[in-house]
Amino acid sequence: MSGPVLVTGAAGRIGTALRGGLPERGWAVRCLDVVPIVDTRPGEEQVVADATDLAAMEDAVAGASAVVHLAGISGESTWPAISHANIEGTYCALEAARRAGVSRVVLASSNHATGYTPRPDGGLLREVDAPPRPDTYYGVAKVAMEALGSLYVDRYGLDVVCLRIGSAFPEPTTVRQLSTWLSPRDQVALVDAALRAPAPGFAVVWGVSANTRNWWDLTAARALGYEPSDDAEVFASALVEVHGEPDLTDPVHARVGGEYTTAEFDAERFEPPLPRGDIAPGSGADR
Length: 287
Fold this sequence. Notes:
Strand order of the largest sheet: 3-2-1-4-5-6-7
Distance between the termini: 33 Å
Structural class: alpha/beta
Number of strands: 7
Low-confidence stretches: 274-286
Mean pLDDT: 93
Helix content: 25-40%
Radius of gyration: 18 Å
Order of helices and strands: EHEEHEHEHEHHEHHH
Number of helices: 9
């Protein structure tokens, strides 16, 4: 492909990993976020803009070869905040790509789109076995993200890959994340595969590393060309020593969405965000 890859939410955790890793795989990167990125890389293009501003997104996507959309609120919040930043932002990313003739869009979906799905008693959970069952407003926005992606594939002929990201952190910090971790190196590998896969049409794939304790089937992701390198099990002994082995009857371990399915994440507990003219820098990272 010619032209840079536009990465929205580039100042966030996954965006930072992609800024370092995609150029090593041959991709030029154009970064978009609501805040300036101070540690710019050689050859990296910078755009300071709001991903929910369609006109700004049209300008940003001009001449790009693909869009990787990470921008938005990366956890639960109030409905006005989530619907604006995460649903409106996804629409703007897809519509700007369509208007610019950019046919490949990679969307940072989430395990929380299907968070109330029970963890399987045996075997691995395929995407087809986990239809939309969101656990939060955040999860609802990820369901809407996948639905918008499907619409833009069927109606406008785009190729859209939705990555149902697990826990995108430098290393796992809980025993649940021994199953859900997506390492920085594998974040880059997964997005690279989603950008290179020939004619994927509409695809929804799990985004996790090759964890020994995975409960998610990576067959669909591997079909795109994704080959994960890392396994959270190298952190298991230290985490289990502190937290103990997971109780699989606990909702945190018995449901795909983990703690997001607990009462703590009732949206009534979340305060409206402080007034500001923009959305928060998007990391696309989940828990």
